[in-house]
Amino acid sequence: MSSKPKVLGYLGPEGTFSEQAARIYRARTAKDRMVLQPFHSIVELILAADVGKIHQAVVPLENSLEGPVALTLDMLAHEVDLKMAAEIILSVRHHLLAKESMDLESIERVISHPQALGQCRAFLQQYLPQAELVTASSTAEAAKMVAGSRARWAAVGNAAAAEVYNLEILAADIQDNRANATRFCVLGKEDCSHPTGDDKTSIVFSPRQNKPGVLYEQLREFAVRGIDLTRIESRPAKSVLGEYLFFVDLAGHKSEPDTAAAIEAVAASSSFFKILGSYARWKE
Questions:
Q1: pTM
Q2: Among 187, 270, 282, 264, which residue's Cα sits nearest to residue 227?
Q3: One fold for both 95-171 and 199-277?
Q4: Is there a catalytic annotation at residue 17?
Q5: Which CATH fold would you assign to the domain 6-92+181-188?
Q6: Known catalytic membership, residue 72
Q7: What is the DSSP string of 54-78?
Q8: Choosing from 17, 39, 123, 184, which is the catalytic residue?
């Protein structure tokens, strides 16, 4: 008897960058059969993984232009018990999509995800200053809205969305920076338990005392052991004004002796501490 395929959730509908990331992850995880399932929001997606409705969830974590996805970070810290099992870094190419060819000056509304609009800010200000900017839950949802409207609307989305919703590309590669990339993480109940030799570990913590040099003292635990920190972000602790959580990515697997020792030292000096997971470093 064949086993039931695992469900991999992503931020839908069809044609999102999240779906692209999910397809890449599924292709690299050939040993497991996976069925892709779209969700309407990041909240719904993460909660589905947390309660076991799906096996894993692919969610956006940060963008090279717009920075971290705060909702993902906050839910990982405060609301769910999930681990990061993998990361996927996807080059982002944004296009201006519409139902038919039209002059840019005649477009009344441009719809997309807030981050996509932000990543194309210069283009939109220069070529569509008259257009109303309207946000949607995803770039693909924006494309779907444009496809279903008779108005002179356009969407910012990718080539996959243009194909899915039968839209024309009015302008290609409209992102402000060609180095635009989004980092996604795969969330589940387990992380990558075995080191691959080229791993990263993500943690979140809050120092036990708010005093001068306290963060330096904690991060020094990694420096003295020669452990590279690849990302540091801060978010409000959601308790007292001025109290923060620090999200740190570091090179190495949590099971490696030096990494484990540094993590233990940081945890001992923290009022809040959580290992978000160890996983293989992304490779193209």
A1: 0.83
A2: 264
A3: no
A4: no
A5: D-Maltodextrin-Binding Protein; domain 2 (3.40.190)
A6: no
A7: SSEEEEEEEETTTEE-HHHHHHHHH
A8: 184
